Amino acid sequence: MFSKSYQPLPQRDSTTPRTPGLFVSADSFAHPGHHRGLSFDYIPNVSENDFSDTSQGWLSWICSIFVIFLVYIVTFIAFPITGWFVLKTVPNYQRIVVFRLGRICPPKGPGIVLVLPLIDQWQRVDLRTRAFNIPPCQVITRDGGVLSVGADIQFRIWNPVMSVVSVQDLNASTRMTAHNALTDSLAKKTVREIQTERLKLGDYLGIDINEMTRPWGLEVDRVELTLGSLLKTPEEGPSGPLIMPPSVPGLESLTGPIQQLAMHFLGHSRSSQQELCLFSIEDSITFADELSCVPQAAVATSVSVEELLGGVKLLLSETLVNQVGASFQFNISSEDGQHQNYYVDLSKGNGAAGAGSLCQEPDVTLSMSDSDLVAMFQGQLQPFAAYTSGRLKIQGDIKTAMKLEKLIKLLRK
Asked: CB count, 10 Å around CB of 152?
């Protein structure tokens, strides 16, 4: 039984002429651009609204016309009954894609659409904008850092026929394509570029996703990156290590000029998130981090919180109240473990400032130490450095907290 050696199956001679068969046109079969034997042999040029079927043979065309004619006759004869099944109402934001005898037809709708029984298979396609989010994923950047980045993506279907014919699961395919494009594009950037050019990278990522999903009849309208935590610090370059700000409720939703203004408040108009402090000790130059320089500057100050509060009272005016229009509560902790509360009310009248708590709910609450508060109002401590290091905690609206910079600028003068 097993004594016979393996005999390969005879292969078909490629020189033998092949016939198109009974139901296929000979012209379309011999067309040089026709991919014979594939499941995508028949996909009309729907992008140019060309639904002509060039792969259908003459006998198949005659049989299709005859069957369609019979179904039309039966439908109209029994119309009072079949009307409940063949008439479909399509709203303006939907289209119906019909496969008649297995072949695609132009999209139908809006309004009342006739769908023939037995020979028509139809599917509704929603043209409204829909959205999904990519969960935060770990991205290895070009400078060796590991960053957690997600994205919020909005897309819509511009060609209902291509969305049904070209892809089986549109949502899953779009999500996977967007996830791969996100990781591939951000892997070519540094952590600093991802943080400072978040909006621009979102626009570029939308263009990349559109190039891959446009053959599916889908168009991405908006891509917004959401930055998570910095899992691994990148390798230090000439500009020093990068400080990654934590995620703050309210700051991620700011876009355009408002988002830049928020970063301006936290970073005091700095193009980079960290600077180098220069000290000269016995003709030697030592470079230190800004965060390591802050405690020395904060301790060296001789101004108390009460003296700072007295200077704030001198600056209170009706003009400042009209510019700010908000109240601030400061929860201050000292080195000996004591906690004190101060307030600056710039919401009514000529304003007020003093020790204690506000009678009303403050718009913004800031928690920090007394030395850091004095250093920040004197310009020795940048708000961004205090915020990223955890020394400054903000509770409330970020846009309202930005208005406190007006008072800080007047006090520095």
From this structure: 15
